[in-house]
């Protein structure tokens, strides 16, 4: 997928995500963000690429390619997300976007895509916390694919969270 590798001339899904704001201040802004989501253009690009290759590849090879593209895209989306500020409403929209993305990818792949989306899903979960200290409940169970430093970095993206509180968390 060329958009996930920084190539291409037209504004594609990656550029749409890069330009998207998740620091939303109202329900109207949330509705506007949903209408301009990066998910549908990204899925359209992925599906168009796979449809073009479908006649030349076995189903297993097509799934392998999809999972490789998904890995590259989620890494790029994660990197772009780490440059954004996110409000409580923006976190809700981001959660919708990631769920829609994962659901559709699960429908077009015969393999599970959950593992490939796990880091991105965990980031979204952290961004949807009501208070900074709630992260302690999540980290106490283990199983996160994020380091303590990454967790702090994610929490700092939320506009409502205080840097001092995050720094004091024992992760």
List keywords for this structure.
171 residues, Methane Monooxygenase Hydroxylase, Chain G, domain 1, single chain, mainly alpha, globular, 9 helices
N-to-C order of helices and strands: HHHHHHHHH
User: Helical element count?
Assistant: 9
**In angstroms, what is the radius of gyration?**
17 Å
According to CATH, the fold-level topology is Methane Monooxygenase Hydroxylase, Chain G, domain 1
Helix content: 55-70%
Distance between the termini: 36 Å
Total domains, how many?
A: 1
Unreliable parts: 5-10
Description:
The chain has helices at 13-19, 27-35, 39-53, 59-81, 88-108, 118-127, 135-140, 148-155, 163-168. It is an all-alpha fold and 171 residues long. The relative contact order is 0.13.
């Amino acid at each position: 997928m060329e958009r996930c590798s920084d190539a291409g001339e037209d504004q594609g899904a990656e550029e749409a995500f890069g330009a998207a704001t998740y620091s939303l201040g109202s329900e109207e802004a949330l509705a506007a963000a949903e209408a301009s989501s990066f998910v549908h253009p990204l899925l359209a690009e992925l599906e168009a690429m796979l449809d073009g290759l479908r006649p030349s590849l076995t189903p297993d090879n097509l799934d392998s390619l999809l999972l490789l593209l998904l890995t590259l895209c989620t890494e790029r989306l994660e990197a772009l997300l780490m440059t954004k500020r996110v409000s409580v409403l923006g976190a809700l929209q981001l959660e919708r976007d990631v769920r829609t993305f994962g659901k559709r990818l699960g429908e077009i792949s015969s393999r599970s895509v959950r593992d490939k989306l796990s880091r991105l899903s965990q980031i979204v979960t952290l961004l949807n916390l009501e208070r900074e200290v709630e992260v302690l409940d999540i980290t106490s169970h283990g199983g996160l694919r994020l380091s303590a430093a990454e967790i702090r970095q994610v929490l700092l993206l939320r506009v409502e969270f205080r840097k001092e509180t995050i720094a004091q968390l024992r992760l």
